Amino acid sequence: MDIEATIAGLGHLIDGRIVRNDATFPVENPATRSPIGDCPEATDDLVDAAIAAARRAQPGWYAAGDRERRRVIGAMAEALTERLEAVVAVSALEKGAMGGAIEAYGGPAFLGHHAAAPLPVDVIEDNDERLVRVVRKPVGVVAAITPWNSPILIACVKVAGALLAGNTVVLKPSPFTPFATLLLGEVWKDVVPPGVVNVVAGGDDTGKALVSHPHTALISFTGSVEAGRHIAAVAAPALKRVVLELGGNDAAIVLPDVDVDLVAAQLFTSSMIMSGQVCAAVKRLYVHESIYPRMVEALARLADAATPVPESAGGSFGPISTRPQYERVRLLLDDALTHGAKPANAGARADGAGYFQAPMILTGVRPGMRVVDEEQFGPLLPVLSFRDVDEAIAAANDTPYGLCGSVWTSDIAAGERLAARLECGTAYVNTHAEVAPHIPFGGVKDSGIGRECGTAGVDGYAELQTQYVYKNPARVATALESGDRVV
Question: Transcription as a keyword (predicted)?
């Protein structure tokens, strides 16, 4: 595969055609800080064209029926599978590491699940007199805006849920990782009816044009809390629906009865996946004081074994995906060290390379430090000790975020009880950061509104309509005349 030629040929997918325009913006490889290429930037006119195409296609797409929509979603999964290696290669270039691109491998599975899952119908009553059911109907045109850390998987999640409900979609990737998503549009061009899925690339102006457009009915966004609040404010006057997944500051609580080495390895993976740049990663660790020194030592060994240099130079730990995020991670680390935090491992930095930050296990941390209170979205793990488990639960919940949380213990019943007390959208026992296409995922508090995946995820892209069907109209009329029926 000639990656340079592939990238140079990419454009927006609008109404079934690849559209290229003169306006562009640069994209760089964060592992080398070298340019990848100039990406087409959708102007307001192109955004209008994409939304108009989606609006025209939507009635016919819904009328095609559940079975046909699922057939097309299945064809999208197959087409992505056939071109998956190319999509992964482009994504790896944008993220600076193949490890950061593995999320794309989940895309076909999430599409495939929706292709095999008929749109639910809830039957409330079905007797001789009447049928009462709840059906899912589309909201219209969905604007789906994806983040730089997981652009392909999250695009598949959003598009599959929206299409199954009968909506059409305009998809916009992050300007930091746009090329793989534009390639995704090219992959789907010939298997999706024109206008049903459109893909446009661009920066903040493109996103604002999508969100504020009078013909987008629902905004599905994954990204920062600040951006999510802005989207909700823009959507509010028109009462547009929103599905918002806005990150987290996930806490994991470790009880004293665990196998320290085993759990340390699992926690390190769950916190440092994609160099800590996953919304559902462990970002705060509360460890019982009796095993705290051993846990810190085990985590430090794992951190020092990770090599923060490019994969081409033998590195095993990818870069921070964007310069602004790298600068933020460095700021949080410097702030923590200034206020008394102590690194438990060496944490060597790569000199002269890209945006690399070695994983850092931090002790001497406390609430009030930014590295504890804020979402780091990088390879920094503050480790705090506790004596009383009620104290740990209170500390875990003392945050405006509420995406995920976990409890680690050999006592499963105790783990379930404690996990149920966590204020978060997903509570785990002895695992963290797992997602699956049939399981709802989303946050509470500042971590978002709504759910993705599963039946609850499809409901987020649907209008629920309650339908009453009386099987004997004559009996209904008699009941109304006698006053026996409340209307």
Answer: no
Residue ranges of E strands in 337-389: 342-343, 360-363, 380-386
Bridge-based pairing state of the strands 404-408 and 426-429: parallel
**Length of the chain in terms of residues written:** 487
DSSP state of 447: G
Q: Is the dihedral of CA 175, 181, 186, 190 positive or negative?
A: negative
Burial group, residue 466, by CB count within 10 angstroms (0-12, 13-18, 19+): exposed
* H-only helix segments in 349-452: 370-373, 389-397, 412-419
d(CA 467, CA 487): 15
CA gap 40, 24 in Å, rounded: 4
CA Rg, the chain, in Å?
24
Tell me the catalytic residues: 245
What is the separation, in whole angstroms, between the first and last Cα of the chain?
A: 66
Are the beta carbons of 366 and 387 closer than 8 angstroms? no
pLDDT in tens, 270-284: 999 999 999 999 999
State the DSSP code for 445: G
d(CA 348, CA 320): 15
What is the Cα–Cα distance from 333 to 220, expressed in whole angstroms?
A: 32
Q: How deeply is 467 buried, as exposed, middle or buried, from its count of CB atoms within 10 A (0-12, 13-18, 19+)? A: exposed
Distance CA 15, CA 259 (A): 55
Please state, as a whole number, how many other Cβ atoms lie within 10 Å of the Cβ of residue 438. Answer: 13
Rounded Cα gap, residues 388 and 290, in angstroms: 11
Q: What is the pLDDT of residue 477?
A: 67
pTM (two decimals)? 0.95
Which helix (H) or strand (E) element contains residue 126?
strand 122-126
Using alpha carbons only, what angle is made at residue 248 by residues 398 and 219, rounded to the nearest 5 degrees? 125
Q: Per-residue pLDDT tens for 49-103?
A: 999 999 999 999 999 999 999 999 999 999 999 999 999 999 999 999 888 888 9
- Apex 392 CA angle, 389 and 395, nearest 5: 155
What are 386's strand-pairing partners? 288
Which distant-in-sequence residues (6+ apart) come within 8 Å of 269 by Cβ? none
